[in-house]
Write a structure and sequence with these properties.
Elements lengths: L1 H13 L32 E3 L4 E5 L4 E3 L6 E7 L8 E8 L12 H14 L5 E7 L6 H19 L5 E5 L13 E3 L6 E3 L8
Parallel strand pairs: 1-3, 6-7
Antiparallel strand pairs: 2-5, 3-8, 4-5, 4-6, 8-9
Helix pairs in contact: 1-3
């Protein structure tokens, strides 16, 4: 069954009649963080999550990722900041990689990595946020979004963790700082792009 899902998903991503295939994981939209305007920047000393990677952080620490154009950002956080020196947040940068390589894990492996970190030290009152780009008529992007959201609900349902999908505003995604997302360590707020207001 898994093989069939992978073949069907690959067909959607690569069929020209259904729209352009998804851009590769090495996006041209990775901004130079040093040139961002000074509003709502992540605090100094944050941990960076690269494409295809999942990381967790201790209470008070910030997790940051950049280059989210067609990729999906996923956060699992405790509803309230955890006690000092305990893990209370996870950030994943999910790329549309169908085949696992040494450099890039498959979509399914990327999702399993999130829950492996979570299960190692579950959070009190967990919440999952899936920040995805609009498909804008692209069947491949729509299939990727739907698959990731569906699989997150499957995993989270086994752990009593509500999942909130949020469609990102991509207005500034090609501008410096427009494709970044982070979860602030001090208040668990999630920020996207160049917007001052948290998305969750």
């Amino acid at each position: 069954m898994q093989l069939f899902k992978s073949i069907a998903f690959f067909a959607l991503l690569s069929t020209p009649s259904l729209g352009e295939p998804l851009r590769g994981v090495r996006s041209n939209y990775v901004a130079d963080v040093g040139k961002l305007e000074p509003r709502a920047d992540p605090p100094a000393g944050y941990d960076t999550v690269t494409i295809g990677e999942t990381r967790r952080a201790l209470s008070g620490d910030t997790l940051f990722t950049n280059g989210l154009a067609t990729c999906i950002g996923i956060v699992i956080r405790s509803a309230v900041p955890g006690p000092s020196k305990t893990f209370d947040k996870i950030l994943a940068h999910i790329s549309p990689t169908l085949c696992q390589t040494q450099e890039n894990p498959s979509i399914d492996q990327q999702l399993r990595n999130i829950w492996a970190l979570y299960d190692a030290q579950p959070f009190s009152q967990p919440q999952a946020i899936v920040a995805y780009p609009p498909a804008n008529g692209d069947a491949g992007q729509d299939a990727f979004n739907s698959y990731v959201i569906g699989e997150m609900r499957n995993y989270a349902g086994q752990r009593n963790c509500p999942v909130t999908p949020i469609q990102r505003d991509q207005t500034y995604v090609n501008n410096p700082g427009g494709s970044r997302m982070w979860i602030d360590g001090s208040n668990q707020n999630i920020y996207w792009s160049t917007f001052n207001t948290p998305i969750a």
